[in-house]
Specification:
The protein is built from ten helices and no strands. The protein has 214 residues and is mainly α. Helix 2 packs antiparallel against helix 7. The two termini are 22 Å apart.
Length: 214
């Protein structure tokens, strides 16, 4: 999940109450977005693929340890909530905690109910990138994120003047470099396809000047 985590939408904060998302709309959207992201991770893990950012690190650690991606993803995000609280506010962090927890739970449950016996790595990567990209859009548009490195990147940009995009790009480059040491290079190459698709979907569609509700 390599797309840049969104900062708070200042324009949407000024919307009249009639255009703001209700609690029920937020709830169903966070469930939907988390389910799509968890499905994408399940597709990746079915073929030994990875993705970027904190989710990618969680996937890689699950391969190396034999443990659950859901548990790794949940634990890796814990330190970033403090930064998120300071940088983006309690409402954003509360929704992000919910989204991360849902992804962790759904991704842990899916292997028992959705068994994938055969799937081309390139097809798995493309499908995973597509559903993760759409899932992130849903989560972003309801004032949340999937936490992690994106929050750290925003904090470093504010404190040290290092652009958030470069921080995330550097992290992903390091993550994929490490993956090359422990995974089949062909699978790492296929994984890049999914990462590109995620970023393209978010870059093209997550525009505050188009989307007015929140």
């Amino acid at each position: 999940m390599t797309a840049k985590q969104p900062a708070q939408d200042q324009g949407a904060a000024d919307l009249p109450p009639s255009l703001a998302h209700t609690a029920l709309e937020d709830a169903q959207s966070l469930v939907l977005g988390a389910a799509l992201c968890a499905l994408g991770v399940h597709l990746l893990r079915a073929d030994g693929l990875i993705t970027g950012q904190t989710a990618g690190l969680g996937v890689l650690l699950s391969y190396l340890s034999g443990g659950s991606f859901g548990l790794w993803f949940f634990l890796l995000n814990l330190p970033f909530y403090i930064l998120g609280w300071l940088r983006l506010g309690p409402r954003f962090v509360a929704k992000t905690v919910i989204a991360v927890t849902l992804v962790s739970v759904f991704s842990s449950a899916l292997p028992a109910v959705l068994i994938i016996e055969s799937l081309s790595p390139w097809v798995a990567s493309a499908l995973a990138g597509s559903v993760i990209g759409v899932g992130l859009l849903v989560i972003f548009r309801h004032g949340a994120s999937l936490g992690g490195i994106g929050i750290l990147a925003l904090w470093l940009q504010e404190r040290a003047g290092i652009r958030a995009g470069w921080v995330q790009l550097g992290f992903d480059a390091a993550l994929f470099a490490v993956a090359l040491l422990v995974l089949d290079p062909w699978l790492v190459a296929a994984s890049l396809l999914g990462a590109v698709i995620v970023n393209l979907i978010v870059a093209v569609n997550h525009r505050h000047d188009r989307y007015i509700g929140r």
